[in-house]
Every structure is written in structure tokens, then in C-alpha cells.
Write a structure and sequence with these properties.
The strands form three sheets. A three-stranded antiparallel beta sheet has the order 1-2-3. A two-stranded parallel sheet has the order 4-5. The protein has a two-stranded parallel ribbon with strand order 6-7. The protein is built from 16 helices and seven strands. α15 packs antiparallel against α16. The protein is elongated and about 85 Å long. The chain is mainly alpha-helical and about 450 residues long.
Length: about 450
């Protein structure tokens, strides 16, 4: 299915953590980890077989090659999946057909695999378009299906350790502990029909990551409502010794993005909003805001459009990241695109204003000093800027980008106060002027770095 607003937080938070951990010296590998292998695939395949039984993908005697081009588009998948899912809920025979298709896919039926590859390719093409618009990067485009061949040997190893057992036809691993304050169900490895679950593929993905990447930390940026799932997976992994004890496993959960009614954000018609539509709304609003503020008026159309896109992405990302990761927040497009208050556009404006000031200084032949001459009115900004390493370390320790948002806003506010109190270009004392220009340059570098760690690009002018 097309990406929607429900995919926004994991993308933005995960990308910020990737940037943040890379900044402090980690070699970071970002893996999108596509959910490409479960029951929805069987539901779509079985629906297509009902509609198009003549397709070669459903002919068990067909020996290939299968068509190179996909017979379905993203729009087709968007139409088919909800109808197939609804049909399976209403009809047990239809649901059984979907379950069998899922099992056949996972067991390697050639026609189903070929069709599934089409689903993945058209979906990835659509996702990359959205991720590019957000400035979000992934190194690996693996999914559940990529680790399927690792599942059987992994399960056999768990059996050999007497950790896996049968339960009502399914194969499970017990993860409950005596000191648990709540019920922790067993993790299902194989369902009764032989199909695998998310927990199975997550364990196999750990096998893959240990073999391929040998990580020191693995951070899962997933909705905090999946907390029980990750508790089960982490416990099963520790029991099975799938990765060394020294490897940190962290579920960096997050809350939901809600509408004004406090419920998960929807379109006006009540449906789930596509991510590309949300971005388009924000760009439209950014154009309005730039016009209201009389910014970017005399610029070429292409540059003006680039600035509008940067303002929109800054608005979306900062509105999300400024919240404590685990907190829910209300989406308010008018508030988040404003050039005043604690918003992404406000921070962009301040950063661009400092750049403009430094350009004017250069044009007038003024140079930044190599040493600081700090007066009482300069000291608050200088002291605040000195906190940068501590703020970054705190954000890393807690996997919390909102710490950087708070600090960036404080820096922008303090600079505004400094700018209002101090002579800079009009300062006659050359040493003091140079010192203040150096303070401006340092502030600009701080804001540029902080915003880049949040995945926010800063235009040269506005």
C-alpha cells in the first residue's frame, strides 16, 4: 500500500537517530525492514487469482519466464488489498485460500514469488519517492522475505536446545518469567498451517544482522504499541543466544500523530491520509507563509519552490521531533508552519538571518576574530553554545531527538536576544565587532548542525 501518515514518525525519528549516532562516531546502517511476507501478501495473491485465473503466475504447469513488467500498479494494490482483507474477514473459506497462498509463497511457489517480486518493486518505487521528499535515507532495503531461508536452521537450533515446543499444532518458544507482573505469551515460530509470524522473521533478521553486520547496537524504531512484541522477540533471542549478550537491543518506541480531536490523524473524509498528500499540503501552506512574510519574493521560481519545500519539511519534522519520542502529539498545520514560536520555519529563518548578516559583514570587509572578547551581553549566548557536546550526548543516551529540538530553539531565542541588545556591524570597536561576528558564525554552525541532525535542510537565503 502507499505510505500514509502512520509511516511518518518511524521514518523521521529513525532517520534523525541515524544522523545523530553517525555524528558521534558510530558506523550506522539504516534498514527499512519491509513487512513484505505475511498474510496480506496471500490475501492479494489469492484475490488476483480469483480475478485473473488465466495469468501465468497461477498456472502450476507454467515454466517461465514470467512477465518482466508488473501486471499491477500501486493504485491497483491500494484498491485490491482492503477489498481482499474485508472478504477474508467475512468468509472463512476465502480466508483459508489466503492462508494457503501465504504458505505457498513462503514455501517457494515460483509463480507466487514472481508476483510477489512485482508487489515489492512497485511498492519500493513509491516509497523511495516519499522518502526522497522527506530527505530520509536507507542503506538496506531488506524485508521479511530476505531472511526466509534462515528460518528453518534457526528453528532447528532452537529445537536442539529444547527451547521450541508444539502448542495446539503451532511451534512456540516460551518467554515468560516467574517475576513478570503481566502475562507474556509464548512467541509463535510456526503457525498450524506452517506459515511464519513477524516474531519468526524478526528472530531470523537478528541471525542475518549478526552474520552480515556484527552490530554493537540494534535499535528498532517502531510504534510503542508493539512493545509486547519486542519484549517477546528480545527474550526469545536471549534464550536462544542468537546474538551475543553484549549486543544492545532497544525498542525506541513512539506515540501517535493525532488530529485536533485527539484521535489518529485522518483526512477530512475520515480516511487515512497518504504521506505524499500530507507533504503536498505542507508545501502549499509553506508557500502561503512565505508570501505572508514577504520572503523569497524576488527569487527565481525554482529557488522559491525549493525554499517552500524546505520550509514544509522543516515544519513537519520539527513538529514531530520536538515532542518526547514516546508522547502522542496533535498535528496542526497552521501552527507548525508559522515563522514565529517553537517551529521548524522559525529556526530556518533565524539560521538564514545569521547567514545574511555574515554575508553583509564580508561585503563590508569585516572579519571574524580568532579570539572572543565577551561583554556581559555576549556571555549568555556564548555559554549556551558551549553546551552543544553535552546536549548531543544526552540525545544519544536517550535516543531522543527532542533534546536537540529544545536546544536549537534555545540557541535561536538567545541569538535573537543577543542581536537585539548588541551592536554587530555597527560596532566601532574592531576587536569587539570581530568577536561578535565570530559568535554569530559559531551560532550559525550550531544551528546548521542541529538542524542537519534532525534531517532539516537550511536554505542559503529566504
Amino acid at each position: 500500500k502507499a505510505m500514509h501518515v502512520g509511516h511518518l514518525r518511524s521514518s523521521i525519528i529513525g532517520d534523525s537517530l541515524r544522523r545523530l549516532l553517525g555524528e558521534v562516531g558510530y558506523a550506522v546502517i539504516a534498514d527499512v525492514h519491509l513487512g513484505d511476507w505475511g498474510t496480506p501478501m496471500g490475501q492479494i495473491i489469492s484475490e488476483l487469482e480469483i480475478r485473473n485465473p488465466e495469468w501465468p503466475y497461477f498456472n502450476s504447469d507454467f515454466s517461465g519466464p514470467y512477465p518482466k513488467d508488473s501486471p499491477v500498479s500501486m493504485a491497483d494494490l491500494e484498491e485490491i488489498y482492503p477489498l481482499a482483507s474485508k472478504a477474508c474477514k467475512e468468509d472463512e473459506l476465502r480466508a483459508e485460500k489466503a492462508r494457503q497462498a501465504t504458505a505457498d509463497l513462503q514455501n517457494g511457489r515460483a509463480g507466487y514469488r514472481a508476483l510477489w517480486n512485482h508487489f515489492v518493486n512497485v511498492s519500493v518505487t513509491g516509497m523511495k519517492k516519499n522518502f526522497d521528499a522527506l530527505g530520509v535515507h536507507f542503506d538496506l532495503w531488506k524485508g521479511e522475505g530476505s531472511v526466509h531461508d534462515l528460518i528453518a536452521p534457526m528453528v532447528e537450533n532452537l529445537k536442539a536446545k529444547n527451547l521450541a515446543r508444539e502448542d495446539d499444532g503451532a511451534l512456540v518458544i516460551d518467554v515468560a518469567r516467574q517475576d513478570d507482573k503481566k502475562e507474556i505469551p509464548p512467541l509463535i515460530l510456526y503457525k498450524r498451517d506452517g506459515a511464519v509470524m513477524y516474531g519468526t522473521t524478526d528472530l531470523a533478521t537478528l541471525v542475518d544482522r549478526r552474520q552480515e553486520n556484527k552490530p554493537a547496537k540494534i535499535i528498532y524504531v517502531v510504534d510503542q504499541r508493539q512493545g509486547l512484541h519486542f519484549e517477546q522477540v528480545f527474550r526469545a533471542e536471549r534464550k536462544g543466544g542468537i546474538v551475543p549478550e553484549s549486543v544492545e537491543l532497544t525498542h525506541a518506541g513512539f506515540g501517535t500523530m493525532n488530529g485536533a480531536d485527539g484521535k489518529p490523524f485522518k483526512t477530512r473524509a475520515g480516511g487515512v491520509m497518504k504521506l505524499e498528500d500530507l507533504i503536498a499540503m505542507a508545501v502549499d501552506k509553506a508557500r502561503e507563509r512565505l508570501k505572508e512574510a514577504k520572503l523569497a519574493e524576488d527569487m527565481p521560481p525554482a529557488e522559491k519552490e525549493d525554499i517552500a519545500h524546505k520550509v514544509a519539511i522543516a515544519a513537519i519534522k520539527f513538529a514531530d521531533l520536538q515532542n518526547n519520542r514516546i508522547a502522542d502529539y496533535a498535528f496542526d498545520l497552521d501552527r507548525m508552519t508559522a515563522f514565529e514560536g517553537k517551529t521548524g520555519p522559525y529556526l530556518l529563518y533565524q539560521a538564514v538571518r545569521i547567514k545574511s548578516l555574515l554575508r553583509k559583514a564580508e561585503e563590508q570587509g569585516f572579519k571574524t576574530a580568532n579570539t572572543f572578547v565577551l561583554k556581559a551581553e555576549d556571555t549568555p549566548l556564548a555559554l549556551l553554545l558551549s553546551e552543544l557536546p553535552d546536549q548531543i550526548q544526552l540525545a544519544v543516551k536517550n535516543y531522543s531527538p527532542h533534546i536537540l529540538c529544545d536546544y536549537a530553539y534555545k540557541v535561536a531565542q538567545e541569538f535573537s536576544s543577543f542581536y537585539g541588545k548588541c551592536h554587530i556591524l555597527s560596532e566601532n570597536d574592531e576587536a569587539l565587532r570581530g568577536s561578535r561576528l565570530a559568535l554569530c558564525a559559531l551560532t550559525a554552525r550550531h544551528l546548521q548542525l542541529l538542524l542537519s541532525l534532525l534531517g532539516i535542510g537550511v536554505p542559503e537565503r529566504m
